Amino acid sequence: MPELPEVEAVRRSLIELVAGQRITDVTVGWPKIIKSPEQYEQFQDALKGQTIHDVDRKGKFLIFLLDDYCLVSHLRMEGNYSLHKQEDPVDKHTHVVFHFSDGMELRYRDVRKFGTMHLFAKGSEWTVPPLSKLGPEPFSDEFTLEYFKGKLSNTERVIKAVLLDQSIVTGLGNIYVDEVLFRSGIHPERKSRTLTDQEILILREQAASTLKESINAGGSSVNTYMNSHGQSGTYQNELKVYGRKDQECYRCGAAVQKIKVAGRGTHFCPNCQKIANY
DNA sequence: CTCTGGTCCTGTACGC
DNA sequence: TGCGTACAGGACCAGA
Predict the structure, then answer these.
(1) Does domain A4-133 fall into CATH 3.20.190.10?
(2) Strand C footprint at Cβ < 7 Å?
(3) Which CATH architecture has domain A145-268?
(4) Which end of chain A, C or N, has fewer beta carbons within 10 A?
(5) Residue whose C-alpha is closest to residue A181's, from A160, A167, A195, A196
(6) pTM
(7) Which ranges in chain A are annotated with CATH 1.10.8.50?
(8) CB A116 within 8 A of CB A86
């Protein structure tokens, strides 16, 4: 559920909590979260003695930079980090704990257990999945009109499926794709190759502006999502179609519809986002 | 190539 | 009131 703006909110709050912290030990309560190294014991061993220097992000991935390693963390549906004292009671959904030399600990909590962590030797993280497969972020210089046009015209898929594909553009998830398509006046089931140059231009602008606005609002707090300080964002109040099934479209008053597209619940306004004629 | 459906998970919503 | 069941979803994988 956390998408780019929410992960950015987490990154900003997290860096204040962990920058400079030295890891003395790591507890792993659910080994499946650790995707690499294959043996989670190696994950634990490698991290002992490492200091966290910075927390970066690409798309929906958090990237912890350590002395010799790089920890790549994906929160998936509802993973979250928080700092605790050792003596604080441990929630039953806490699956990974990073113990620090000052006695505090960073806890990774994830009710669904869908989140992932990859540990790589520093510098190699961009050469292997998952980071190597990511396309540019919507507001990056690499996300040029030529690039976007090329990707959209090169496939028979519907636009929603293309926007969810992290290898084409990274950071959008189910919520923001619906919002961006609404703001662009484009039906989620339009074949991406039928989009006009003008529509592609608008889509690119709206993808960037929607995410930027949400970042500035601290992200959206749908389903009680919060950053690592326990603060919620406010962008959920700005959502125009997501979660508004059967409610009036803010723009035209028609009832917002919910259908399934690319296997996902999809909200759109049938009046503002017409598919006819294509 | 692309779509569908299963997988991983568990809390929540819903029907009876 | 309480129980069973369907559902949600990011990324990935197998099969059509």
Answers:
(1) yes
(2) A 1, 3, 59-60, 74, 76-77, 112, 114, 129-130, 133, 164, 166, 173-175, 264-265
(3) Orthogonal Bundle (1.10)
(4) C
(5) A160
(6) 0.95
(7) 145-268
(8) no
